Structure formats: C-alpha cells, structure tokens
TrEMBL record:
This is Uncharacterized protein. It comes from Powellomyces hirtus. Keywords: ANK repeat, Repeat. It comes from the Eukaryota. InterPro entries: Ankyrin_rpt (IPR002110), Ankyrin_rpt-contain_sf (IPR036770), Multifunctional_ANK_Repeat (IPR051165). ANK repeats lie at residues 225-257, 259-287, 285-317, 315-347, 345-377, 375-407. It holds the Pfam family Ank. SUPFAM superfamilies: Ankyrin repeat.
Length: 441
C-alpha cells in the first residue's frame, strides 16, 4: 500500500484523466484499484503526481509485463507513463525484458492512433533504418489526424532530406476512402499525386460514399477515369454520390451500363431510380439488371424495373429460373403475376426449385400451371436424388410419374441413402425389384 506524507503540497499540474482510472479498474486487483482510485480522489492534498504516475506504471507492468505496459500506455497517449516505462526498460534486467519483449513498431502505431504527439515523440524512430514510416502515415491518414500527419512528415524530413512525395500517394487514397477532406487537402499541398493509379483517390471516395470527399476531389481536378467512380458508387448504393458524378459528366452508359447492373444486383432502389431517370438503358446486356436483381431476391428493385418496362422473358425467362433457384418466393410470385412463362426453358424453374429444396416455390409454380412431366419428370428425379421428401410428396400428389426413366427417382435416392424418400417412393408404387437388379449390376 502506498504511503503518502500528510504535509505533501498539492501539485500545480493536472492529475491523470478519469478514463485512465476507469481502465485501470479492469487491469488491477481489487484492493490496489480501490487504493489508486482513492489516491486520485484526494490527489491534490495527499500524494504527489510523480508518485501516482509511478504507481500506475507499476500496475501496468504487473498486468501486462514491461513490454505490454509500454504498448498499453502508448495506445492511451500517456506520455509521462511511457517515459517512466522506457527508462525502466533501458535499466531493467534481462529477465524482466524477456518476460514480455517490447515491440517498438506496435507501440509506435498505438501512439499514432492515440494522437498524442508528445508520446509519439518518445517512441518514433530518429533514423531512417529504424522506420516503417509508410505504415505510420497510413494510420494517420485512416484516422484523419492532420496534426499527427504533420508531425510524422516533419520527423521523416529530419532524417530523409530527399523526401519523395510518392510516399504520400497511398495515404491520400486512404484519406479519400475515409472521407477526410482536411487530410486530403493537406497531403495535396505536400505533393501527393491526385491522379495516382488513374485517379484512385476519387474511386475510393466514391466507393465509400463520401459525397464531401468526392466533391472536394473533383474541385481539385480529379478526372472521371473510365467512369469507375460512378460504377463503384452505384455498387455501394450511394445515391448522393451518384447524383454528383452524373451532374459532373459521368457516363452512365459506360461498360454496357455497368452502373445500372451493379445497382440492380445489390438492390439499391434509390440509385436504380436515379440512373433510370438519367436515361440508363434498362434492356442492356439482355436485361441484366432485371435478371440479377431477381436472382438476388431484391423485390423492390424487380418491381421498379418491371414498372420501367424491363423484359421478364429475356434469355428464356432467366429471371424466373434464378429467383426460383434462390428461393425468393415473393420475387417468383411477382414475376408470375406479371406474365413470366412458368414452363420456360422446358420446366427449368420447377427443376431448380425441386433440386434446391424450395418447397413453397414448387407449390407456387404448380399453382401457376407448371408441368411436372417436363423432361421425363426431371423435377421428381432431382428432388428424390437430393432427399427433399416433402417436394417429392408434392410432385407425386400433382401427378408426377414415380417410375419415370426406369425408376430413376428410386435409384438415385437409394444411391444417396435418402431413406425417407425411398420409403415414400416405394409406398407410391416404385418398382423395388428394378431397384435391386440395378444395384446388383
């Protein structure tokens, strides 16, 4: 237990922040935690700041080892405790250092994340050979800490007089991806390349949906290279960014209206409506937009596309087949109600639904007139082979031929050890003798 002199004068500098003691409560054993919290409460009259810092440092070492204590304090931006721990590391015994070896690189990253520049000054390298400055710069750019970036650049310039601005290009892209406009502007003033990798910063900002960053980059001279920013924004469902890019001259027809296809595939209805309003070609690539929104079960997107005249019969009613395979009941119902051919592609929708075990969709297709006998009752054979007994029951009740293709349903169910399905087929008249002779071959 720490002893405090009764005549200790109050310190003239602030004591540790409250959050440190909140965290300390998770690290320390009960009695010591209570003691330190009491010390914090009465710090202005009972204990010197230096003693309190040493006590806190000791508890960190106890909980994490010396190396872990340095990293933890660095991550919290506790400069004075880091200083104490570094001194202890320099003067410590070999066994103490080996207990939990200090990772300088990890501590540097944590210090940058904390944003505490005095702590960074203690930990950052002073020679080029010790540096991994590119990753430190990326960390600062990710967090949008401009003052930290300035400090890092200044430190790099101290040991790298021939500083190459190309090192700022990846941080610029990262800052754009995070929407940190102040950081973007600062890096550009230092010589970062706005057009690096075919205007990658603009693509990153568009993909992230940062309207502010997209506007800032366009105002700074970014180019709509091959219209990929529009495509990325559409894929992410960022309607505001899509609107900005269209107004700035992006070509919504680029790469066979890929922006429309991406928005449809991911079900971004607001973006779809915006692109269609600006004249996107709804039938491009054999109505790709409708087919793939149906495949993914995006009901609202399918509804919007149909209302704009999308062709649900494209590629032999591929949309219905894909929706049935994916188990998207509401989408299948919508397509059927709008006139999709239930027996399209020789009953492929029913076969896929049976194969994948989509019982309710099988019933729905049958209600709309699906033919169970298409391709020699292939739906029954597929359902039996995969062991979907409920679907086998539905198909048999709808008139499917239990002995189709020389008892193929029974043979395949037996081969795959679908016991319940085999029992059902036998009870409905499948030829067990034929099954046994086939097995003997």
């Amino acid at each position: 237990m720490l002893r405090t002199p009764a005549d200790c004068r109050p310190p003239n500098i602030p004591f540790l922040p409250t959050f440190f003691f909140d965290e300390l409560a998770c690290w320390c054993d009960g009695p010591t935690t209570i003691a330190l919290l009491q010390l914090n409460k009465f710090v202005n009259r009972s204990i010197s700041r230096s003693n309190l810092l040493r006590a806190a440092a000791e508890r960190l070492v106890f909980a994490h080892g010396l190396g872990g204590a340095i990293e933890t304090a660095a991550g919290r931006g506790l400069e004075e405790i880091v200083r104490l721990l570094l001194e202890r590391h320099a003067n410590g015994t070999r066994s103490e250092k080996q207990k939990r070896e200090w990772n300088p690189w990890q501590a540097q990253i944590l210090a940058v994340r904390s944003g505490n520049i005095p702590t960074m000054a203690l930990l950052l390298p002073t020679s080029k050979g010790d540096s991994r400055c590119d990753e430190l710069l990326m960390t600062a750019a990710t967090l949008g800490k401009t003052e930290v970036m300035a400090f890092l650049i200044d430190r790099i310039l101290q040991y790298t007089p021939d500083f190459d601005p190309k090192i700022l290009d990846p941080p610029l892209c990262q800052a754009a991806a995070k929407g940190h406009c102040q950081m973007i502007g600062y890096l550009l003033t230092l010589g970062a390349n706005l057009h690096v990798w075919k205007d990658e910063p603009l693509r990153e900002a568009a993909a992230a949906g940062s309207a502010e960053a997209v506007t800032f980059l366009l105002d700074s001279g970014s180019k709509l290279e091959e219209n990929w920013p529009l495509i990325h924004a559409a894929r992410g469902g960022h309607a505001e960014v899509v609107d900005i890019l269209l107004k700035r001259g992006a070509d919504l027809h680029a790469i066979q209206d890929l922006a429309l296809h991406e928005a449809a595939s991911y079900g971004h209805v607001e973006v779809l409506a915006l692109l269609l309003k600006h004249g996107a070609r709804i039938h491009s690539e054999d109505d790709y937009a409708l087919r793939h929104s149906a495949r993914n079960g995006h009901l609202a997107a399918v509804t919007l596309l149909l209302s704009h005249g999308a062709n649900l019969h494209a590629k032999r009613d591929w949309a219905l087949q894909a929706a049935a395979k994916g188990g998207h009941f509401s989408t299948v119902l919508l397509l059927l109600e709008n006139g999709a051919a239930v027996n399209c592609n020789d009953g492929e929708a029913l076969r896929l639904a049976a194969l994948k075990g989509r019982t309710e969709i099988v019933r729905l297709l049958l209600q709309f007139g699906a033919n169970v006998h298409c391709r020699d009752d292939i739906a029954l054979v597929c359902a039996a082979e995969t062991g979907h007994t409920a679907i086998v029951q539905v198909l048999l009740d709808s008139g499917a031929n239990v002995s189709t293709m020389d008892n193929a349903a029974l043979k395949r169910a037996s081969r795959n050890k679908r016991i319940e399905t085999v029992a059902l087929l036998l009870s409905r008249g499948a030829d067990a003798t034929e099954k046994r002779s086939d097995a003997e071959k």
